[in-house]
Design goal:
alpha+beta, four-stranded mixed β-sheet, globular, paralog of FGE (formylglycine-generating enzyme)
């Protein structure tokens, strides 16, 4: 009889232990799920922003955009290379909150024993450290990104970071904000523009300098239009995003067309454009 009682007691103890262990496992998993968001935020690299993955609205439906008057003298068909508007899946990623600054790029030059861009000579602001680096070739931007353990963003990533979860036309919303106009020529310290902030709190995607992406310029799927071809014997062209123009070049550059998040710029990767810089991205 005692033997039977002992067996029952041992069975009860074993069941209780199994139940206890399963409760601990459940609580541990539940805690992990609950804390996954804050944990990602906590681990976000310094001066970067976490962009959640998911579906992203990319490109343009010209029927929903303003018609560009012929007297503006466009050398290509507006909106044509931004079509079709589509929804694509994007993985989680990080992107720099600000454009790479002159001080950051100078550290890179010093560490890798290379000269600063000659285009900087005589034109830098009096205190240039927090101004965006400009006159950077695509290869230099790519090398810098690798040096800091990052990479250049893809077109889709850049546009996702700019448009936010609702796919806004501009970084700040769907309507052009006239308050951006004073910031559309020349450069200024990164993060100092109160208008140009995306829903994810990424700064200066619209103005300051335009920014190299990781990708060749090519038609979107289902489209065959390219507004520019590389010169004979030269490398493929790359896409830059955002828009910038030099002081005194405003004119029709003030129209909203150029400052939409879907606008695609095109550049030769070997050319030093006085208006082009970059920011970095990173995979999780």
């Amino acid at each position: 009889m005692n033997t039977f009682k002992n067996i029952v007691r041992q069975i009860i103890y074993a069941v209780l232990i199994i139940v206890f262990i399963n409760v601990l496992i459940f609580l541990f998993k539940h805690k992990q799920i609950k804390s996954s968001g804050p944990y990602i935020e906590k681990e976000t690299p310094a001066d970067m922003v976490f962009i959640p993955g998911g579906m992203a609205e990319i490109g343009t439906d010209p029927e929903l955009e303003d018609e560009i008057p012929g007297h503006y003298g466009m050398m290509y068909e507006p909106y044509r290379d931004e079509q079709p508007k589509r929804t694509v899946f994007v993985e989680n990623f990080y992107i720099d909150r600000y454009e790479v600054t002159i001080s950051q790029y100078r550290r890179f030059c010093k560490a890798t024993s290379r000269e600063e861009p000659k285009i900087w000579k005589g034109v830098l602001p009096e205190k240039p450290d927090w101004f965006p680096a400009f006159g950077i070739t695509w290869a230099e931007a790519d090398e810098y990104a690798k040096w800091v353990g990052k990479r250049l963003p893809t077109e889709v990533e850049w546009e996702k970071a700019a448009r936010g979860p609702k796919g806004s036309r501009f970084t700040w919303g769907d309507s052009f904000d006239q308050n951006i106009i004073p910031y559309l020529e020349g450069i200024y310290p990164v993060g100092s523009n109160p208008v140009d902030i995306s829903p994810y709190k990424v700064h200066d995607l619209t103005a300051n300098v335009s920014e190299w992406t990781a990708e060749y310029y090519a038609p979107y799927p289902g489209n065959d239009y390219m507004r520019q071809q590389p010169e004979e014997g030269k490398n493929k062209l790359y896409v830059w995003r955002g828009y910038h123009h030099n002081v005194g070049e405003r004119g029709h550059y003030d129209i909203p067309y150029f400052y939409r998040a879907a606008y695609r710029g095109v550049g030769d990767p070997e050319t030093r454009y006085s208006t082009t810089g970059f920011r970095c991205a990173k995979s999780l």
